[in-house]
Protein backbone atom coordinates (compact mmCIF):
# COMPACT_ATOMS: atom_id res chain seq x y z
CA UNK A 1 0.00 0.00 0.00
CA UNK A 2 1.34 3.43 -0.96
CA UNK A 3 1.14 6.64 1.03
CA UNK A 4 -0.86 9.57 -0.24
CA UNK A 5 0.71 12.57 -1.91
CA UNK A 6 3.80 10.84 -3.28
CA UNK A 7 5.36 11.84 -6.59
CA UNK A 8 6.13 8.62 -8.38
CA UNK A 9 7.25 7.59 -11.85
CA UNK A 10 5.99 4.70 -13.95
CA UNK A 11 8.66 2.96 -16.05
CA UNK A 12 7.96 0.48 -18.87
CA UNK A 13 10.27 -1.96 -20.59
CA UNK A 14 8.42 -3.05 -23.74
CA UNK A 15 9.95 -6.25 -25.10
CA UNK A 16 8.95 -8.65 -27.84
CA UNK A 17 7.57 -11.20 -25.37
CA UNK A 18 6.71 -9.24 -22.22
CA UNK A 19 6.09 -5.71 -20.97
CA UNK A 20 7.65 -5.12 -17.55
CA UNK A 21 6.31 -2.18 -15.54
CA UNK A 22 7.58 -0.61 -12.36
CA UNK A 23 6.61 2.27 -10.09
CA UNK A 24 9.38 4.18 -8.33
CA UNK A 25 9.14 6.47 -5.33
CA UNK A 26 12.41 8.38 -5.76
CA UNK A 27 15.00 5.58 -6.11
CA UNK A 28 12.87 2.87 -4.46
CA UNK A 29 10.95 0.37 -6.60
CA UNK A 30 7.62 0.07 -4.79
CA UNK A 31 5.73 -2.15 -7.25
CA UNK A 32 6.41 -4.06 -10.46
CA UNK A 33 4.36 -6.16 -12.86
CA UNK A 34 4.87 -8.28 -15.98
CA UNK A 35 2.35 -8.78 -18.77
CA UNK A 36 2.46 -10.31 -22.23
CA UNK A 37 3.23 -8.08 -25.22
CA UNK A 38 0.10 -8.07 -27.39
CA UNK A 39 0.16 -5.99 -30.58
CA UNK A 40 -3.61 -6.43 -31.03
CA UNK A 41 -4.62 -4.77 -27.74
CA UNK A 42 -6.29 -1.36 -27.96
CA UNK A 43 -5.32 1.70 -25.96
CA UNK A 44 -8.40 1.20 -23.77
CA UNK A 45 -7.40 -2.38 -22.95
CA UNK A 46 -3.91 -1.26 -21.94
CA UNK A 47 -5.39 1.61 -19.95
CA UNK A 48 -7.66 -0.75 -17.99
CA UNK A 49 -4.70 -3.02 -17.23
CA UNK A 50 -2.69 -0.09 -15.87
CA UNK A 51 -5.59 1.04 -13.70
CA UNK A 52 -6.16 -2.47 -12.34
CA UNK A 53 -2.46 -2.79 -11.44
CA UNK A 54 -2.52 0.56 -9.66
CA UNK A 55 -5.76 -0.27 -7.85
CA UNK A 56 -4.39 -3.59 -6.60
CA UNK A 57 -1.35 -1.85 -5.06
CA UNK A 58 -3.25 1.18 -3.77
CA UNK A 59 -1.48 3.60 -6.11
CA UNK A 60 -3.40 6.69 -7.22
CA UNK A 61 -3.08 8.01 -10.77
CA UNK A 62 -2.49 11.53 -9.47
CA UNK A 63 0.61 10.27 -7.61
CA UNK A 64 2.30 9.43 -10.93
CA UNK A 65 4.30 12.45 -12.11
CA UNK A 66 5.92 10.91 -15.21
CA UNK A 67 5.98 7.84 -17.46
CA UNK A 68 9.19 6.59 -19.11
CA UNK A 69 9.19 3.93 -21.85
CA UNK A 70 11.90 1.88 -23.57
CA UNK A 71 10.46 -0.13 -26.46
CA UNK A 72 11.79 -2.50 -29.10
CA UNK A 73 8.28 -3.07 -30.53
CA UNK A 74 7.32 -0.05 -32.70
CA UNK A 75 3.88 -1.43 -33.76
CA UNK A 76 2.65 -1.35 -30.17
CA UNK A 77 3.66 2.21 -29.40
CA UNK A 78 0.62 4.06 -30.80
CA UNK A 79 -1.81 2.17 -28.55
CA UNK A 80 0.52 2.33 -25.57
CA UNK A 81 1.21 6.06 -25.82
CA UNK A 82 -2.46 6.85 -26.46
CA UNK A 83 -3.51 4.83 -23.38
CA UNK A 84 -1.08 6.81 -21.21
CA UNK A 85 -2.33 10.13 -22.56
CA UNK A 86 -5.97 9.11 -22.07
CA UNK A 87 -5.85 7.41 -18.68
CA UNK A 88 -2.79 8.89 -16.97
CA UNK A 89 -3.24 12.37 -18.55
CA UNK A 90 0.41 12.87 -19.49
CA UNK A 91 2.88 12.62 -22.35
CA UNK A 92 5.30 9.71 -21.84
CA UNK A 93 9.06 10.11 -22.20
CA UNK A 94 10.13 7.60 -24.86
CA UNK A 95 13.81 6.61 -24.96
CA UNK A 96 15.28 7.66 -28.29
CA UNK A 97 17.18 10.46 -30.05
CA UNK A 98 17.44 13.64 -27.98
CA UNK A 99 17.31 11.88 -24.60
CA UNK A 100 20.34 12.44 -22.35
CA UNK A 101 21.91 9.17 -21.18
CA UNK A 102 25.43 10.00 -20.01
CA UNK A 103 26.75 7.19 -22.24
CA UNK A 104 28.99 7.93 -25.24
CA UNK A 105 27.70 5.59 -27.95
CA UNK A 106 30.50 4.33 -30.23
CA UNK A 107 28.11 2.28 -32.38
CA UNK A 108 28.56 2.73 -36.16
CA UNK A 109 24.88 3.64 -36.49
CA UNK A 110 23.54 4.82 -33.10
CA UNK A 111 19.95 5.05 -34.41
CA UNK A 112 19.96 1.27 -34.93
CA UNK A 113 20.82 0.59 -31.29
CA UNK A 114 17.82 -0.77 -29.36
CA UNK A 115 16.43 1.39 -26.57
CA UNK A 116 16.65 -1.53 -24.13
CA UNK A 117 20.40 -1.90 -24.76
CA UNK A 118 20.96 1.82 -24.13
CA UNK A 119 18.93 1.70 -20.92
CA UNK A 120 20.77 -1.40 -19.65
CA UNK A 121 24.13 0.21 -20.42
CA UNK A 122 23.16 3.35 -18.47
CA UNK A 123 22.02 1.32 -15.47
CA UNK A 124 25.05 -0.98 -15.44
CA UNK A 125 27.53 1.89 -15.69
CA UNK A 126 25.75 3.97 -13.01
CA UNK A 127 25.32 1.03 -10.59
CA UNK A 128 28.54 -0.92 -11.12
CA UNK A 129 30.91 1.48 -12.86
CA UNK A 130 33.04 0.54 -15.85
CA UNK A 131 34.28 -1.50 -17.53
CA UNK A 132 31.12 -3.62 -17.50
CA UNK A 133 29.45 -6.19 -19.73
CA UNK A 134 25.66 -6.59 -19.75
CA UNK A 135 24.14 -9.95 -20.70
CA UNK A 136 20.42 -9.53 -21.41
CA UNK A 137 18.72 -12.92 -21.71
CA UNK A 138 15.31 -12.38 -23.25
CA UNK A 139 13.65 -13.18 -26.58
CA UNK A 140 17.10 -12.54 -28.05
CA UNK A 141 20.33 -12.77 -26.07
CA UNK A 142 22.11 -9.42 -26.21
CA UNK A 143 25.57 -8.78 -24.82
CA UNK A 144 26.83 -5.19 -24.51
CA UNK A 145 30.29 -3.86 -23.64
CA UNK A 146 30.76 -0.54 -21.81
CA UNK A 147 34.26 0.83 -21.22
CA UNK A 148 35.72 2.35 -18.06
CA UNK A 149 35.08 5.78 -19.64
CA UNK A 150 31.35 5.11 -20.09
CA UNK A 151 31.61 4.39 -23.82
CA UNK A 152 29.14 1.97 -25.38
CA UNK A 153 31.51 -0.11 -27.52
CA UNK A 154 29.06 -2.53 -29.14
CA UNK A 155 28.26 -6.16 -28.53
CA UNK A 156 26.57 -9.33 -29.72
CA UNK A 157 23.01 -10.41 -30.61
CA UNK A 158 22.09 -14.09 -30.91
CA UNK A 159 18.90 -16.19 -30.69
CA UNK A 160 17.45 -16.51 -27.22
CA UNK A 161 16.70 -19.87 -25.60
CA UNK A 162 12.97 -19.72 -26.43
CA UNK A 163 13.66 -18.86 -30.08
CA UNK A 164 16.03 -21.83 -30.30
CA UNK A 165 13.49 -24.15 -28.62
CA UNK A 166 10.73 -23.01 -30.99
CA UNK A 167 13.01 -23.56 -34.00
CA UNK A 168 13.71 -27.15 -32.94
CA UNK A 169 10.00 -27.85 -32.49
CA UNK A 170 8.97 -26.22 -35.77
CA UNK A 171 11.76 -27.49 -38.02
CA UNK A 172 12.40 -31.01 -36.69
CA UNK A 173 9.34 -33.24 -37.21
CA UNK A 174 9.93 -35.63 -34.30
CA UNK A 175 11.08 -33.14 -31.67
CA UNK A 176 8.40 -32.06 -29.16
CA UNK A 177 7.66 -28.68 -27.60
CA UNK A 178 9.34 -28.63 -24.20
CA UNK A 179 9.47 -26.65 -20.96
CA UNK A 180 12.71 -24.78 -20.30
CA UNK A 181 13.74 -26.65 -17.16
CA UNK A 182 17.39 -27.24 -16.30
CA UNK A 183 18.10 -31.01 -16.29
CA UNK A 184 20.20 -32.48 -13.47
CA UNK A 185 22.89 -33.74 -15.85
CA UNK A 186 24.24 -32.66 -19.23
CA UNK A 187 23.85 -36.22 -20.52
CA UNK A 188 20.14 -36.54 -21.25
CA UNK A 189 18.42 -39.95 -20.97
CA UNK A 190 15.42 -39.11 -23.18
CA UNK A 191 14.52 -36.73 -26.00
CA UNK A 192 13.12 -34.04 -23.71
CA UNK A 193 16.16 -33.92 -21.39
CA UNK A 194 18.46 -34.08 -24.44
CA UNK A 195 16.78 -30.94 -25.78
CA UNK A 196 16.74 -29.20 -22.39
CA UNK A 197 20.43 -29.93 -21.91
CA UNK A 198 21.36 -28.63 -25.34
CA UNK A 199 19.27 -25.49 -25.00
CA UNK A 200 20.24 -24.50 -21.45
CA UNK A 201 23.79 -25.80 -21.00
CA UNK A 202 24.54 -24.99 -24.64
CA UNK A 203 23.40 -21.42 -24.06
CA UNK A 204 25.53 -21.19 -20.92
CA UNK A 205 28.55 -22.25 -22.95
CA UNK A 206 27.69 -19.74 -25.67
CA UNK A 207 27.39 -16.86 -23.19
CA UNK A 208 30.61 -17.74 -21.38
CA UNK A 209 32.59 -18.05 -24.62
CA UNK A 210 31.30 -14.73 -25.96
CA UNK A 211 31.93 -12.91 -22.67
CA UNK A 212 35.52 -14.18 -22.57
CA UNK A 213 36.13 -13.06 -26.16
CA UNK A 214 34.60 -9.63 -25.45
CA UNK A 215 36.78 -9.22 -22.34
CA UNK A 216 39.88 -9.98 -24.43
CA UNK A 217 38.88 -7.40 -27.05
CA UNK A 218 38.10 -4.70 -24.47
CA UNK A 219 41.70 -4.72 -23.15
CA UNK A 220 40.54 -3.59 -19.69
CA UNK A 221 41.11 -4.92 -16.18
CA UNK A 222 38.47 -6.23 -13.77
CA UNK A 223 35.50 -6.22 -16.14
CA UNK A 224 32.21 -6.75 -14.26
CA UNK A 225 29.58 -8.97 -15.93
CA UNK A 226 25.92 -8.32 -15.10
CA UNK A 227 23.03 -10.52 -16.27
CA UNK A 228 19.42 -9.42 -16.65
CA UNK A 229 16.28 -10.44 -18.54
CA UNK A 230 13.53 -13.01 -18.09
CA UNK A 231 15.82 -16.03 -18.52
CA UNK A 232 18.85 -14.64 -16.68
CA UNK A 233 18.41 -16.64 -13.49
CA UNK A 234 18.55 -20.06 -15.17
CA UNK A 235 21.73 -19.16 -17.11
CA UNK A 236 23.48 -17.19 -14.35
CA UNK A 237 23.22 -20.15 -11.96
CA UNK A 238 25.48 -22.21 -14.28
CA UNK A 239 27.66 -19.51 -15.85
CA UNK A 240 31.36 -19.16 -14.99
CA UNK A 241 31.59 -15.55 -16.20
CA UNK A 242 28.47 -13.80 -14.83
CA UNK A 243 29.29 -11.90 -11.61
CA UNK A 244 25.96 -10.28 -10.80
CA UNK A 245 22.27 -10.99 -11.46
CA UNK A 246 20.01 -7.93 -11.57
CA UNK A 247 16.51 -8.71 -12.85
CA UNK A 248 15.46 -5.05 -12.48
CA UNK A 249 18.39 -3.55 -14.42
CA UNK A 250 16.25 -2.12 -17.23
CA UNK A 251 13.75 -0.57 -14.82
CA UNK A 252 16.65 1.00 -12.90
CA UNK A 253 18.06 2.37 -16.16
CA UNK A 254 14.74 4.00 -17.02
CA UNK A 255 14.62 5.65 -13.59
CA UNK A 256 18.20 6.91 -13.95
CA UNK A 257 17.53 8.32 -17.43
CA UNK A 258 14.42 10.10 -16.14
CA UNK A 259 16.51 11.72 -13.40
CA UNK A 260 18.96 12.96 -16.05
CA UNK A 261 16.19 14.44 -18.20
CA UNK A 262 13.45 15.62 -15.85
CA UNK A 263 12.68 19.36 -15.82
CA UNK A 264 14.15 21.23 -12.87
CA UNK A 265 11.79 22.66 -10.26
CA UNK A 266 12.93 26.17 -11.17
CA UNK A 267 11.84 25.66 -14.77
CA UNK A 268 8.46 24.35 -13.62
CA UNK A 269 7.95 27.33 -11.31
CA UNK A 270 8.85 29.83 -14.05
CA UNK A 271 6.47 28.09 -16.45
CA UNK A 272 3.64 28.44 -13.93
CA UNK A 273 4.30 32.19 -13.65
Account of the protein in words:
This protein folds into two domains: 8-94, ATPase, nucleotide binding domain (Nucleotidyltransferase, domain 5, 2-Layer Sandwich), CATH 3.30.420.40; 104-254, Nucleotidyltransferase, domain 5, CATH 3.30.420. The protein has helices at 43-57, 77-87, 115-128, 161-171, 191-218, 232-236, 249-261, 265-272, and strands at residues 8-14, 18-25, 28-36, 64-71, 93-94, 104-105, 132-137, 140-146, 151-159, 224-228, 244-245. By secondary structure, the chain is of the alpha/beta class. The protein contains eight helices and eleven strands. The protein has a six-stranded mixed β-sheet with strand order 6-9-8-7-10-11, with helices on both faces. The protein has a five-stranded mixed β-sheet with strand order 3-2-1-4-5. Helices cover 38% and strands 24% of the residues.
Present the secondary structure layout.
Elements: E1 8-14, E2 18-25, E3 28-36, H1 43-57, E4 64-71, H2 77-87, E5 93-94, E6 104-105, H3 115-128, E7 132-137, E8 140-146, E9 151-159, H4 161-171, H5 191-218, E10 224-228, H6 232-236, E11 244-245, H7 249-261, H8 265-272
Parallel strand pairs: 1-4, 4-5, 6-9, 7-10, 10-11
Antiparallel strand pairs: 1-2, 2-3, 7-8, 8-9
Summarize the model shown.
This protein is an alpha/beta fold. The chain has eight helices and eleven strands.
Q: What is the H/E order? A: EEEHEHEEHEEEHHEHEHH
Low-confidence stretches: 1-5
Structural class: alpha/beta
- CATH architecture field of the largest domain: 2-Layer Sandwich
CATH class identity of the largest domain: Alpha Beta
Distance between the termini: 35 Å
Amino acid sequence: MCKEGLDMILVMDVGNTNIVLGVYDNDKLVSSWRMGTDRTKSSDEYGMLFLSFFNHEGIKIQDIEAVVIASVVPPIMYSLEHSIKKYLKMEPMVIGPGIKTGINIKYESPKQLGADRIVNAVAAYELYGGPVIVVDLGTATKICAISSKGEYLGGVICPGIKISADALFQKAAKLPKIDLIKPETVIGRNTVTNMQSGLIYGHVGQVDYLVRRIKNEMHEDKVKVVATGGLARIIASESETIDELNSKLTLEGLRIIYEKNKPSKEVDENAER
